Amino acid sequence: MSFLNKFFSRGNGKLVGIDFGSHELKAVQYGGSSRGPVLEHVYRIATPAGAIKDGVVADAQVIGEALRQLMSEGSFSARRTISAVSGPTVVVRQITMPVMNERELRDSTKYEAERFLPYSVDEAQIDSKILGKSEDGQNMDVLIVAAQRDLITSQMAALQLAGLTPAVVEVEPFSMVRAMIAPDDALFEQNVAIINVGGSSTSINVTKAGFVPFTRNVPIGGNAITKAIANGLNVSNEDAEKMKREKARILSQQDTGPVPPTVTRIFNVITPPLTELVTEIHKSLDYFRTRFRGETIQSVMLGGGSSRLENLDAFLSHELGLPVSLANPLERSTHNAADFPADFLRDAGPSMIVAAGLGKRDLGAETRSAAA
Question: What is the pTM of this model?
Answer without folding.
Answer: 0.90
